Amino acid sequence: MTEEKRVRRLLQGNEAIVYGALAARCRFFAGYPITPASEIAEQLSVRLPAVNGTFIQMEDEIASIGAVIGASLAGVKAMTATSGPGFSLMQENLGFACAAEVPCVIVNVMRGGPSTGLPTSPAQGDVQMARWGTHGDHPIIVLAVSSVLDSFTITVKAFNLSERYRVPVLVLSDEVVAHTRESVELPLNSEVKVVDRIAPGMPPDWYKPYQEDARGVPPMAAFGDGYRHHVTGLVHDQDGFPTQNPQEVEKFHHRLSMKITKGLDDIQLTRKFYMEDAEFFVIAYGSVARSALRAVEEARRAGIRAGLVQLITLFPFPRRTLIPYLQQCHSVLVPELNLGQISREVQRINQGLCTVVKQNRVDGKLITPQEIYSRLVKLSAGPAG
Amino acid sequence: MPPSIQALTHIYFRHNKKFPHVWCPGCGNGIVMGALLRAITRLELEKDEVVLASGIGCSGRMPTYLDFNTLHTTHGRALTFATGIKLANPALNVVAIMGDGDATAIGGNHLIHAARRNLNLTAIIINNSIYGMTGGQYSPTTPFGSTTTTSVYGHIEHAFSIAELAVTAGASFVARSTVYHAALADQLIEQAMVKPGFAVVEIISNCHVQYGRRNQIGNAIDMLNLFKEQAVTVKKAATMDSEELREKITIGVLADRDLPISTNEYKRIREQARADQGKKSI
Ligand code: SF4
């Protein structure tokens, strides 16, 4: 075999997600066609069989995520990709994956909503739905990508977190990131850090599939591995059997939420730009974060002490990272392609520390660097400005 | 001599599971569970190579009690999970267990597409013509005119014939039994599990608690006796006209055909893809 060399490629965001998934050793995809996510399915239909993986186009998105969960239970890393309308259909089985702790990755290339909405325009309208779309209290991790390179690295990260915490991880892209082509040099698969779920080491008779331990994430046996066990979406005890015993029910909820809390340092990803001496700052994610960075750089050139915190992890919301900056700054601007879905999180944690200013756009167009820059100029006059 | 049902319970029941089960005394679900265990015993399958995936409803609880790889999915979705499991590990024997509302109302789309797709899966559909667990509402197989908790004035819709639906949708193997014909049921399940391709076994069952009682059919025994009277073999049915067959239940094998199986076809795709990628060297 010839030695692999890094190559520079001109890729779309959706293609980079495919490369990321394969690098993370995803070997199963089930999906249903939808704009603007379809390229992910198309490319995986070509590439997965070549690496002994499996692609299947199902009859709808409900079936797609069902098949993904089934494949993961049989020990294969699995994903699906969709957009808002399909994501709505997936909520039922997404809850199953949360309750039964089945690792899987779901990409939502966001488009304008609600309903069929604006199929070919970017939006960030599914942010709160990603956190709370499926019913009941549940653990979940939501990541956002802002560039083609991100689409690769964050997809790898999504699989790794999913495997480590046995939780579905949602990757939010948007129509702009998905379809923009950028020249990127991707790491070789051999250079990518890949995390696999922990398999049980004890004899099968001793295996309790949902046993509480220090990590809060029980080892996961695949169907067929000799560790016969029961998997259900009902609230279950440590053997996986349905229970209504209040103590066991409480324990179930507590562990599901604690396993994420225990991992916050590992899970909550942000990028900080010019924050050391910032007097006020921007919180942004997805394609808007790129406009925000341009605007902040422009502001710095004009002598304005603005900063930017780009959120990669939207949920669990990175409260501990943001609080010191909310204390440091007199105001924070939150530009979003929705009517204020992350700004409400910022307000929730802010508790009067500084002034939270929203900047929203829902007309199917991007928020430009100029638009953000002009808000920064205004804000530089102080919180009342 | 085949093992007694008591011996089977010792072999296959989960002894760490908190019994009792949730089913009403006399429910046909138990007969279907027995038939499934007898079929698995005869096939000499290892417990580790069997996956049972169910949906939601009284039938959905069956896998919980049995010592295999078991999965209790969401309502109507058992076949979608089963599809993923089978594709990920084709060596596993995957059996989906569903009820009539489960398989043909909320999961109807998955059933017809699973039949069309023709993966090597077995689907057992327990048809008792009612939603039992939720209190006796009408299902897609509730007969016209029946009384249920949501059709107290008499049901005004028409029932699906599940097995015929599966035949039309393209399943490789389709059969029907009733819980009265328990020996036939295990034979058919055995045949279905052996058959390469998507195999459906519909088993007409008694929900005397929610259906029998409300429709003046009586208790579990009365319902089983009714199934005995209503049953006609496929062979006999072929000689009868539709009017004569109106109140009858056709039992036996309705379809048995050899079609390409998608997991086998996919092997070919993998080879092709590997060859193509080798050429492109990307
Ligand atoms: S309600 Fe009907 S189907 Fe459910 S366990 Fe009772 S008899 Fe069986």
Automatic annotation (TrEMBL), chain A:
It comes from the Bacteria. InterPro entries: 2-oxoacid_oxidoreductase, PFOR_II, Pyrv_Fd/Flavodoxin_OxRdtase_N, THDP-binding, Transketo_C/PFOR_II. GO terms for molecular function: oxidoreductase activity. SUPFAM superfamilies: Thiamin diphosphate-binding fold (THDP-binding), TK C-terminal domain-like. Keywords: Oxidoreductase. CDD domains: TPP_PYR_PFOR_IOR-alpha_like. Residues 20-248 form the Pyruvate flavodoxin/ferredoxin oxidoreductase pyrimidine binding domain. The keyword Phosphoprotein does not apply. Residues 278-372 form the Pyruvate:ferredoxin oxidoreductase core domain. It holds the Pfam family POR_N. The keyword Glycoprotein does not apply. PANTHER family: SUBUNIT OF PYRUVATE:FLAVODOXIN OXIDOREDUCTASE, SUBUNIT OF PYRUVATE:FLAVODOXIN OXIDOREDUCTASE-RELATED. This is 2-oxoacid:acceptor oxidoreductase subunit alpha. It comes from Candidatus Electrothrix aestuarii.
TrEMBL record, chain B:
Signal peptide: none annotated. One of its GO terms (biological process) is cellular respiration. Keywords: Oxidoreductase. GO terms for molecular function: oxidoreductase activity, acting on the aldehyde or oxo group of donors, iron-sulfur protein as acceptor; thiamine pyrophosphate binding. The keyword DNA damage does not apply. InterPro entries: 2-oxoacid:Fd_oxidoreductase, THDP-binding, TPP_enzyme_TPP-bd. The keyword Secreted does not apply. Residues 56-203 form the Thiamine pyrophosphate enzyme TPP-binding domain. This is 2-oxoacid:ferredoxin oxidoreductase subunit beta. It comes from Candidatus Electrothrix aestuarii. The lineage of its organism: Bacteria, Pseudomonadati, Thermodesulfobacteriota, Desulfobulbia, Desulfobulbales.
